[in-house]
C-alpha cells in the first residue's frame, strides 16, 4: 500500500494578500541575539513576497500575525481573505480563531502529517535556513548572528524576480501583438510573423527587448507606432549587439554578419595580449601538448597558480561556442539531425526560403556513423548508441534530412576542432562563410 500522489494544480490567488501562507520554523539549537529560537514566515500567494519575524516561543505567533496584518493591510489598502497553515497548536488557539472571524479571514488548515499541502511555507522554511547557513559560513560571524542573516536572506529573496512576472509580461505581449495581426511561430515562441502580399515582417522578442526585421520601412514604422501605444518603449535604433555579439552591416555590398571583435578585444586586454603580434591561424600547426609539460616541482606549481591559464581557455571557449556550427560525429549526428529538423520547420514557418522543403544535407566524415544512420547494423561496440541511430534513421526515413559522407580532407568544420596548416585553414574557413570583417570602417 502506497500513498496517492498529491495534486499539484493548486489555484493561485488573483490579487495581493488574498491568500497568505504561514508556518513556524524551529526551535534552532543556537539562540539568536535577543534570545530568539524560532521564526514565523508569512508568504503572499500571488507575489510570493515574504515576511519573517523572529520569536522566542511559538505562542508569540498570534501577536506577530496581528503585527503583519496591520502592516500589509495599511500599506496595500487590501484585506487578507485566507490564511493557510498547518495544524500547529499556535494557529488553533481560541484567541487566534476569534481574531480571524472578526476580520472575516478564512482559516485554511492542512490535514495532519501532510506538509505537501502547505508546500509554499515548507519550501520557504527550507530556502531561508539554507541561505542563512551560506551567509554565516562566508561571514565567519558568531553563530548568534543568524537572526540578522535570516532577515537579510528574506530581503534578498524578495528582490529575486519570480517566474510569474516574466510569464505575465509574455502573455500580455502575446495578446497585444496578435491584435496587430502578427502570428506566433509554432517552432519558436518568441518569433512573430506577419505577411501582407510581398511585405514580410518579423518580430523577435527577448525578455523585454524587441528586434524588428522586414522588407518594408513604412510597415516597420507602423509596428513601432502600435507598440508605442500599447507599452512604454524606447526606440534604440538599429540593433548593434545581440547576446554580446556585434552585428556587422555593409549595405553597399549587401552583407550582414556577426563579429566577436569586441569580446575578443576585451579578452586580449584582460590577459595583456592586446599588443601582441597578430597571427593568421588560431594556433600553430604541429604543436603537441602533453602532461610532461605540466609543472612538476612545488616551486613551478606555485608560479603556475598566478597564471590564469584556465580563465583564458574558458574565455576563448565561450567565444567559440557562441558562433561555431555543430560538428556531426557518430553521436552528434543524431543531435545535428534534430537541429536540422527544427531549423527546417522554423524556416518553413517563416516562408522565406522555398528550397527548404528539400531534405537538409548533413555531412559527416565518419564512415561508421554514416553506415549506421542509413541502415540497421548491430555491433557489440555500438550497442550503447543504437537509440541515437534509431532516431536519425526515422528522421532520414521521413525525408527531413539526408546524411552524406565527405572525405576527411574536405571536412570544412576541421578548423573548429583541430590545428591545420594556414592554407587549408583559410580554404575551410571561407567554405563555411567565415570571413575577415573590417569593422573599423
Tell me about this structure.
The chain has 441 residues and is of the alpha+beta class. It is built from 13 helices and 14 strands. The strands form four sheets. Strands 3-2-1-4-5 form a five-stranded mixed beta sheet, sandwiched between helices. A four-stranded antiparallel beta sheet has the order 6-7-8-9, with helices on one face. A three-stranded antiparallel beta sheet has the order 10-11-12. The protein is extended. The N and C termini lie far apart (75 Å).
Q: Secondary-structure blueprint of this entry?
A:
Blueprint: E1 19-25, E2 38-44, E3 50-55, H1 61-76, E4 82-85, H2 94-102, E5 106-109, H3 119-139, H4 146-159, H5 163-179, E6 183-184, E7 191-196, E8 199-206, E9 209-214, H6 217-230, E10 241-242, E11 245-250, E12 255-259, H7 261-270, H8 298-305, H9 309-323, H10 332-350, E13 360-364, H11 367-374, H12 386-397, E14 401-405, H13 422-431
Helix pairs in contact: 3-4, 10-12
Structural key phrases:
441 residues, alpha+beta, five-stranded mixed β-sheet, four-stranded antiparallel β-sheet, extended, RNaseH_sf, hydrolase
Amino acid at each position: 500500500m502506497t500513498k496517492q500522489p498529491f495534486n499539484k494544480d493548486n489555484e493561485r490567488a488573483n490579487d495581493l494578500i488574498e491568500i497568505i501562507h504561514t508556518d513556524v520554523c524551529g526551535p534552532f539549537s543556537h539562540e539568536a541575539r535577543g534570545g530568539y529560537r524560532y521564526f514565523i514566515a508569512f508568504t503572499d500567494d500571488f507575489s510570493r513576497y515574504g515576511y519573517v519575524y523572529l520569536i522566542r516561543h511559538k505562542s508569540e505567533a498570534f501577536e506577530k500575525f496581528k503585527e503583519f496584518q496591520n502592516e500589509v493591510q495599511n500599506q496595500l489598502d487590501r484585506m487578507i481573505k485566507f490564511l493557510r497553515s498547518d495544524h500547529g497548536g499556535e494557529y488553533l488557539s481560541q484567541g487566534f480563531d476569534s481574531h480571524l472571524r472578526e476580520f472575516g479571514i478564512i482559516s485554511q488548515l492542512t490535514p495532519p502529517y501532510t506538509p505537501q499541502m502547505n508546500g509554499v511555507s515548507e519550501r520557504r522554511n527550507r530556502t531561508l535556513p539554507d541561505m542563512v547557513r551560506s551567509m554565516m559560513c562566508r561571514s565567519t560571524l558568531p553563530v548568534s548572528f543568524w537572526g540578522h542573516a535570516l532577515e537579510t536572506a528574506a530581503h534578498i529573496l524578495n528582490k529575486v524576480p519570480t517566474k510569474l512576472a516574466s510569464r505575465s509580461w509574455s502573455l500580455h505581449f502575446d495578446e497585444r501583438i496578435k491584435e496587430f495581426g502578427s502570428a506566433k511561430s509554432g517552432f519558436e515562441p518568441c518569433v512573430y510573423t506577419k505577411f501582407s502580399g510581398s511585405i514580410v515582417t518579423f518580430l523577435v522578442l527577448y525578455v523585454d527587448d524587441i528586434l524588428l526585421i522586414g522588407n518594408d520601412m513604412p510597415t516597420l514604422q507602423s509596428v513601432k507606432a502600435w507598440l508605442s501605444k500599447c507599452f512604454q518603449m524606447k526606440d534604440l535604433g538599429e540593433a548593434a549587439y545581440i547576446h554580446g555579439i556585434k552585428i556587422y552591416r555593409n549595405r553597399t555590398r549587401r552583407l550582414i554578419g556577426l563579429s566577436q571583435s569586441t569580446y575578443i578585444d576585451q579578452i586580449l586586454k584582460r590577459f595583456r595580449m592586446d599588443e601582441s603580434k597578430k597571427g593568421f591561424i588560431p594556433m600553430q600547426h604541429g604543436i603537441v601538448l602533453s602532461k610532461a609539460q605540466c609543472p612538476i616541482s612545488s616551486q613551478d606549481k606555485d608560479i603556475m597558480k598566478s597564471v590564469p591559464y584556465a580563465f583564458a581557455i574558458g574565455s576563448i571557449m565561450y567565444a567559440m561556442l557562441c558562433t561555431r556550427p555543430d560538428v556531426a560525429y557518430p553521436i552528434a549526428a543524431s543531435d545535428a539531425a534534430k537541429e536540422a529538423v527544427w531549423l527546417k520547420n522554423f524556416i518553413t514557418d517563416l516562408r522565406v526560403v522555398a528550397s527548404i522543403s528539400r531534405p537538409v544535407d548533413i555531412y559527416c566524415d565518419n564512415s561508421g556513423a554514416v553506415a549506421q544512420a542509413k541502415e540497421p547494423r548491430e555491433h557489440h561496440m555500438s550497442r550503447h548508441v543504437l537509440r541515437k541511430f534509431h532516431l536519425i534513421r526515422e528522421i532520414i526515413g521521413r525525408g527531413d534530412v539526408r546524411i552524406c559522407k565527405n572525405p576527411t580532407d574536405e571536412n570544412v568544420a576541421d578548423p573548429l576542432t583541430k590545428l591545420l596548416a594556414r592554407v587549408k585553414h583559410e580554404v575551410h574557413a571561407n567554405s563555411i562563410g567565415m570571413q575577415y570583417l573590417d569593422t573599423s570602417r
